[in-house]
Structure formats: structure tokens, C-alpha cells
Amino acid sequence: MVVxxxxxxxxxxxCLGCGYIGSYICPAxxxxxxxxxxxxxxxxxKKKSYLGLTHPKCKRRRGVDxxxxxxxxxxxxxxxxxxxKYGGAYxxxxxxxxxxxxxxxxxxxxxxxxxxxRCQAVPLHIEKQKERGFNQVEHILRPISLLLNAETLNILTxxxxxxxxxxxxxxxxxxxxxxxxxxxxxxxxPENILLVDDxxxxxxxxxxxxxxxxxxxxxxxxxFSLARG
Length: 229
Prior knowledge:
disordered N terminus
């Protein structure tokens, strides 16, 4: 605590939105972030869906069973995620009011009441985690697991060092880049899992993680991300 206070004096935090001193994201700018305000949507077709569940016609073998997110991946939110990943400012996530919107909160709690979920973060490759010093998704996972009073898992690992998905221009390149990147580190896989990520754009990373978890024995795998592009 003392060290943090000293660092805040020597290296003050500036709001990424307006430059206000004292925090990475001030209350006024956080209110400007684009929350998703409408009903939950199917992971695959993006059409409205009850509780974010995958439509029967959209179901995939070893696919995503349901999906929920909080923000739209635009403008200031892109700047926040970039600062978290590449600037080491992961404390931004601790400052944000992750559960301001009620609908995603209710959906997560409903899923958990029905299936008693375990929470798993999308992992980073060990070399990339060493470079950054942290996995930003774990800072999103913690409040989610506390909210749900759910066990956190560490049964998934990234075995292939890939290019950044954001650096690839086509869907085909992103799909090829991430294929075969993840593996299980445990022989026992819980039946019901909530996979947590920071951002979902094409969804290929989430799909690949879910495929591995389902292949390993999970019966239901839901996805939560802070934002969707």
C-alpha cells in the first residue's frame, strides 16, 4: 500500500480518456464507454437470444453454449485494452466498475445457479506472459469468480506462440494462427465451465479453447468477455 502511494506520487496516473490526474479511467470517461444495452445475443449468429444461449440451429459440436459481454470494443475501450496489454497498466481493470450493467450480471448468476460453473481464463503463452509479467485476463477472472463464488481453474495452457490476432487482417489467417494453440494440463475436466477473456472479435480464440475443453470432457462451456468487437 505504501509503495503504491509513493508510485502514485512519482508516476501519477492519467485518465486515458481526458488526461485527468488520479486514475487510468475517471468516472466521467467510464460513463462514456459503450456498454452493451440490449438483450443477450447468440455467440455465432449475433441475433438476440434468451440468456445469451446458442440457438439450437447455431449449435456446433464442441462449441460455445452461451455468451455474455459488457462493453463494445470501440474507441476508448480499445485504448484501455491496448494500455493493459502493452503498457502494463493492468490496474485499469481494478478501477473499472465491471458490473454496472445489470443484464449481463443476471445472466452470469442464472447460468451459475443452474450449472454451478468453474471459471477458466484464456491463457497466454509462457513466453508472452514472462514478457508482460502478467496475464490481463486473470484480472478479469478474479471479480467474476468472486461474484459467482466459483472455483477458478488452471487446466488450460497455450502451447504455441502465435502472432497477435489483432495484427492479422483476414479471418482465415486468424483461424489458422490460433488452431492447435491450446492443450489441457489436467486429466479431469469439470462438466460446466465459464471461459473468461478480455475481448472477443472473430471468436476464434474462444472457439479453440472451448473445443479443447469440450474434447477433454466438459459438457457445457460458456464464454464471458469484457468486450466484443
